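User: Sequence in, structure out. Go.
Assistant: Echoing your sequence, followed by the structure tokens.
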Amino acid sequence: MTKVSVIGATGYAGAELLSILIRHPQAELAHITSESHTGKKISELYPHLRGICDLTLESLSDIESIGKDSDFIFIALPHGHAMDVGLKLEKLPVRIIDLGADYRFNDTTIYEAWYNVPHKHTNAARVYGLAELYREQIRTAKIIGNAGCFTTASILALAPLVKHHLVETNSIIVDAASGVSGAGRGLKLGNHFPELYDNFKAYNVAHHRHTPEIEQALEDLGGERTIINFTPHLVPMSRGILATCYATLKENVSDDMIDAAFQKTYGNEKFIRLLGRGGYPETKFVRGSNYCDIGWHVDERTRRVIILSAIDNLVKGAAGQAVQNFNIAAGFCEGIGLDVAPMYP
């Protein structure tokens, strides 16, 4: 068994991660932590885990001991905290999967500019954790920066077209709508039921922190300078993301070339389901699963392609993706622990 620990187990992503790891046949939960709930059982905070996972939450104060007792550590903390853990564990053989943003960027100055936090671990060797596109690098990585939720939906939608140079990379627009669990478990006025219910709103227009993460991945894949417009929206549902991505086609790009790019990139991928040209992904059909459903449409009048992708933000956009990366890095079958059908209805 591979010993794993979860740092920050009491957020929505951390709890989702526990739900997956306790059914993983090759993973043994060694330690789970929470600074605000140290000493309590996780099932006291999440009663749905009662009798399934009753581990006691520990403190990070002795992170070195936790690191020595773990093969892999998952960090599910807000940005700015994982780098402290990484620094303290850098001389140990334990491998790290960070569900936050601290290790997602190749250039830490970009991270500092968008997150307004000094990066303390600039020399850390890290790999971007989007399994379908960085699988080989993930296999041997010491630190894996798990891709963000909006970014996963957007990058997976656009990657085949950028990689095969079918679209103008300065024309990309992404509109993405997320369920409220993406904002975390902390109490916020805008997430209260009377504020959220029967409402649909945009936020952080032109300033959302996932923007440079999407640009970084697309530039890496296509080798072309990429600048996007990204607008996130909040919808009154607990989980799920639907991303609608637009891009102008390059000259002489045919519909068949677009279809072929998606098939070549994802035709053999376990967790990407291609709905094809004319397909309409829906969040309900991926809820609670690690799947990403993708469909695309070509507007002949404007010569633009519109790609739609749907994921569960807590699974493929966070915990499920982290376990998928863990499986790759540990040498397991990629779908172990993740082979569940979406919840329906």
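User: And one key feature?
Assistant: The mean pLDDT is 97.
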